[in-house]
Amino acid sequence: MNNQEIEEIFATARPISIRRMFGGKGIYSDGAIIALYLFDEILLKADAETAPEFAAHGARQWTYERPGGKRVAMPYWSVPDSAFDDPDEMAKWVNLACEAGRRAFLGRSAKKGKTVAGEHG
């Protein structure tokens, strides 16, 4: 999948940036990572708030195996198949990924004592 195709999928999250990572691509919105493109698949960011909705719609959580055989679950989920045929449904999943990415980004920034642009404290 090329960057233009990725940008079309993430049209509701604009502006986005796409960076190489892990042999694939990281997809960012407002500085927060919201998705990965790995293994010829889009994987959307989820968290405790949104992961149950991904699971309920048949999405698969990305896991990998560490040396020694331990499986590690990552906070990224496949896009439900039906979303690829329905731009409104795709927008819903992209927006959920943006929300999860933003919460994670704000949480990291708060732990580091940083103020995020547009936030007053």
List keywords for this structure.
single chain, 121 residues, alpha+beta, Yope Regulator, Chain: A, 6-stranded antiparallel β-sheet, 3 helices, 6 strands, 31% helix, globular
Descriptive notes:
By secondary structure, the chain is of the alpha+beta class. It has a single domain (3-111), classed as YgaC/TfoX-N like chaperone (Yope Regulator, Chain: A, 2-Layer Sandwich). The chain is 31% helix and 31% strand. A hairpin with a 2-residue loop joins strand 2 (24-29) and strand 3. The radius of gyration is 15 Å and the shape is globular. The model is unreliable at 115-121 (pLDDT under 50).
Strand content: 25-35%
Strand order of the largest sheet: 1-2-3-4-6-5
Rounded average pLDDT: 88
Element pattern in H and E: HEEEEHEEH
Structural class: alpha+beta
**CATH architecture annotation name:** 2-Layer Sandwich
Q: What is the CATH level 1 assignment?
A: Alpha Beta
**Most strands sheet:** 6 strands, antiparallel
Secondary structure elements and their pairing?
Elements: H1 3-9, E1 16-21, E2 24-29, E3 32-38, E4 41-45, H2 51-56, E5 61-65, E6 71-78, H3 87-111
Antiparallel strand pairs: 1-2, 2-3, 3-4, 4-6, 5-6
